[in-house]
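Example protein
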Amino acid sequence: MTAVSELARKPSHVTGRTLRESVEAFVAGWSKHTAIPVEVWALPKRVVPDEVAGLAFSVLVDALSAVERATYVSMALTAGDTLRLTVCDDGLGLGSREVLDRGELRARAAALGGRYDLASSNGDGTTITLELPL
């Protein structure tokens, strides 16, 4: 699994005003550190609530920290009536123990009226989605 800096694990500095810039900086640094290209399909232009921004950033950090032996990662983060984050990779995928460990992220998403989903199988990569109402 790819090491992620402790700073990135603390989304408290990410606000709804800085979400786009925080994601851009984190993804660029992660990609440079791991030499795994990240294709960014979309980033939000609008301000979102701070709690939503913090959770979206946490999910992104978690998704990238779980990438193992991938040749690429793609991600999209949009904010209309709903904030949607999708992160996909072609890596090894997560085993059942790691999937179950995402319960905190699911609970945080549910508390905000949204949902967190993870689809993964050994050898077939991982897709993580987050949807939160705005």
In short: The chain has a mean pLDDT of 87. The first strand starts at residue 38 and ends at 42.
